[in-house]
Design goal:
Elements: H1 3-6, H2 12-18, H3 20-51, H4 54-81, H5 84-99, H6 111-139, H7 145-173, H8 177-194, H9 212-228, H10 230-236, H11 238-246, H12 248-261, H13 269-294, H14 298-319, H15 325-353, H16 356-385, H17 390-416
Length: about 425
């Protein structure tokens, strides 16, 4: 049992009230995520409008995921070698400039530009997210790690619910392009708040990588670490399994549900916002409720991850018949609950076990696993949605697929006991 598990955990309000550095990081996250969800709803609606193709929407989500995958080796080294606060600020400023380019995409012949700008934006985000995860133990105490991780995830979920709904309203009422301007502004505000964090020099690799080969060599140390720690590797694979089963893949299906089955608002922006929003509600309440029973104890967190897979599979099964919008929203809520539990608790297990000087590279590797599967899943889903399977068949297939990682993780837990 780790030290973090033997100490009395810090409360959520206590952490926010007493830790100014975490509070600054948290406020920056709130603002930045608001713009992120505006951007995702708007860009998905724009592609659907310009192309009329679910395959093209699936391609957009694939690009969103592949870009961080490609950049992950360098992002992990940067998060361990350089001041993590500076990495976060530079990423925010670069993304603010990039997203303004979305305003140039006005015709079907310009969709390629949207893909390119999305790749640049998400490639920069590939530097941001490992550094953001890795910085938590640098600014909070061991007994506050669980609370900080949960707050960060719930914030992601709440902003998904609020930001997606708000983005859907903005896109559905005023059109798509104002969302891109809002996104750029939020990155600037986020950079300002992150700048308030007090953080000492990085304690990572002894030497700065002088070449691409050197950076890849330092990243290879993380791969070797995971090879020697099989349990950590399996924990780091959960988000990848989640992406395929009922994470990023589900978002592509939701676009099809919103545009084909339950279109509401201009370019179906309202229905898409509702679907993304209820998914965010589930991802927020799931880990918060479950953590009342698990605390930060490793064995309970692992059991909760197993339960989360079955919850997600059940949610997909409820959604698949497409009886009505209420049933679809209920099933989506269940998927969100399972999604949130897997995301938060796998991150918690890594925060409690991975040493600080390796943390950025391990989280970057986890992000690489996740983004690779989150690119493959939506691409396959986009093709399947245009096949005889249709929406219902895809959802049933995803529900059955979710039982595979559940069985493997259950077997690993049994062998571990």
């Amino acid at each position: 049992m780790t030290a973090a598990e033997t100490q009395t955990p810090t409360g959520y309000l206590e952490l926010i009230r007493e830790n100014a550095d975490f509070r600054s990081l948290w406020i920056g996250q709130i603002v930045s995520l608001l713009g992120d969800w505006f951007n995702m709803v708007a860009s998905a609606a724009l592609v659907a409008k310009l192309t009329g193709s679910e395959l093209a929407v699936g391609g957009l989500f694939a690009v969103r995921m592949l870009a961080p995958f490609v950049i992950s080796p360098f992002a992990g080294v940067a998060a361990d070698r350089y001041n993590r606060k500076h990495v976060l600020i530079l990423a925010d400023l670069a993304r603010a400039v990039t997203v303004l380019g979305f305003l140039l995409v006005r015709h079907p012949s310009q969709v390629w530009l949207l893909y390119v700008l999305t790749a640049i934006q998400l490639g920069i985000s590939g530097f941001f997210f490992p550094a953001r995860n890795a910085i938590l133990p640098d600014i909070v105490s061991p007994r506050a790690i669980g609370a900080a991780n949960a707050i960060g995830s719930v914030t992601w979920s709440v902003m998904l619910a609020f930001g997606a709904a708000a983005g859907g309203i903005v896109s559905g009422v005023w059109g798509i392009y104002p969302a891109f301007v809002i996104d750029a502004i939020t990155f600037l505000v986020s950079a300002f708040f992150i700048g308030q964090i007090r953080l000492g020099p990085a304690a990572g690799p002894a030497q700065s990588p002088s070449s691409i080969a050197a950076a890849l060599g330092q990243y290879g140390e993380a791969l070797e670490y995971l090879r020697r720690h099989a349990d950590t590797l399996f924990v780091a694979l959960h988000k990848a399994a989640l992406a395929v089963c009922f994470g990023a893949t589900l978002q592509v299906v939701q676009v099809a549900i919103a545009t084909r089955i339950f279109p509401l608002g201009k370019e179906s922006g309202l229905s898409l916002g509702f679907l993304f929003g209820i998914l965010g509600v589930g991802t927020g309440i799931g880990p918060i409720l479950a953590r009342r029973f698990t605390g930060d104890e490793s064995r309970r967190l692992r059991a909760a991850i197993l339960l989360a897979y079955f919850t997600g599979a059940a949610g997909l099964a409820v959604t698949a018949p497409l009886w009505n919008l209420a049933a679809v929203l209920a099933g989506t809520l269940c998927c969100g609950v399972g999604n949130g539990m897997i995301w938060v608790f796998s991150t918690q297990l890594l925060l409690q076990s991975v040493p600080g000087m390796m943390r950025g590279r391990v989280f970057a590797t986890e992000l690489a696993f996740f983004t690779l599967m989150a690119a493959a899943g939506p691409a396959v889903a986009g093709m399947a949605l245009e096949s005889p399977l249709g929406i219902t068949g895809v959802l049933w297939s995803m529900s059955g697929l979710t039982l595979l990682p559940a069985a493997l993780w259950g077997l690993w837990l049994a062998l571990g006991d």
